[in-house]
Amino acid sequence: MRILHTSDWHLGRSFHRVNMLGHQRAFLDHLIETVRSRQVDAVLVAGDVYDRAVPPLAAVELFDDALHRLADLGVPTVMISGNHDSARRLGVGARLMAKAGIHLRTDPAGCGTPVVLTDDHGDVAFYGLPYLEPALVRDTLGAEKARHTQVLGAAMDRVQADLATRPAGTRSVVLAHAFVTGGAPSDSERDITIGGVASVPADVFDGVDYAALGHLHGCQTITERVRYSGSPLAYSFSEVHHRKSMWLIDLGADGAVEAERLPCPVPRPLARLRGRLEDLLADPGLAEHEESWIEATLTDPARPHEPMARLTERFPHTLALAFEPEARDGGPDVSYAQRLRGRSDQEIAEDFVAHVRPRRAADAAERALLGAALDEVRTDQAAKESA
């Protein structure tokens, strides 16, 4: 069976205030043509169909058009909700859409109920595991703790229990939206940390033939049977080195996996430039980036006059401008944003305590209290978005 694995469309998202709907439409045109030309048997979308719980109307219309085109091809499609989606909203009409071959899996309670497709070699069971917010689904799944590893493990227990009832030789595919250990994140993914632990081990998917993952925006191989397709478009400059793509998976009669990486259209390349303003404007080696989307970091000791206006004369698609002056007199000159980069909410909160209360950092009890407060805020937010 030939499977096309994609995820993280984020329909309705902009890129530094640039409307991306036209580029998202171009990607969906490419996806439809790929399904047709490569004779795909099933399409998988591993979550974050939309960028937010209540998407703009234009994004909903684009999604609706994509569903109609996939249904017209007669190729079954399996989709799950991600942490950006409203599971309830995305799941509206799921039973009716299933009659047209569009299978939406947004209810955690249905993790153990697969979409079963058949090829010349028998059945393939597709299990959709939507994004599982630990505090919200722990009781539903009977997990021991409200942690990502425990709730995903409980969901996989349901998958394994159902597989055990299927005829021998039934192949299995899982769609999941999660942060799996070994994956490389980028700046454009929403933090799903709960209790300080966001990632789950890859071996939670042991026993299935293929795990089609969503959430991380870089295409990557965790194991030969566990892969991220990544987002089809870049949504932050941290993705400057990403090669956006989808996975074409051939699932053999014995469950063997053959994977081919298919590139996605690039609407405009990204570039990160760093240096003094006059150097960036004069450097002939930067000519290749004149039509790229640009993030520029200026290192001039003093802020230049009208830097954005001058940059856009040469680089008209400059979208982001930052200032990191070169160190003066050998001393560090680090911006606030730079100090925070790469730090978790928990670390930032603990640093704040140490800052306002000199010589006394947060102790173990206070760190636990901060962690619990952050978890409660995230759970609250997730509950509002899933409503």
Automatic annotation (TrEMBL):
Record-annotated Calcineurin-like phosphoesterase domain positions: 1-218
Keywords on record: DNA recombination, DNA replication, Endonuclease, Exonuclease, Hydrolase, Nuclease
Leader sequence segment: none
InterPro entries per record: Calcineurin-like_PHP (IPR004843), DNA_Repair-Maintenance_Comp (IPR050535), Metallo-depent_PP-like (IPR029052), Mre11_N (IPR041796), SbcD (IPR004593), SbcD_C (IPR026843)
Organism this protein belongs to: Streptomyces ochraceiscleroticus
Highest taxon, organism lineage: Bacteria
One MF term in the entry's GO annotations: exonuclease activity
Its job: SbcCD cleaves DNA hairpin structures. These structures can inhibit DNA replication and are intermediates in certain DNA recombination reactions. The complex acts as a 3'->5' double strand exonuclease that can open hairpins. It also has a 5' single-strand endonuclease activity.
Organism phylogeny: Bacteria, Bacillati, Actinomycetota, Actinomycetes, Kitasatosporales
Domain Nuclease SbcCD subunit D C-terminal: 267-355
Protein name per the record: Nuclease SbcCD subunit D
Coiled coil: none
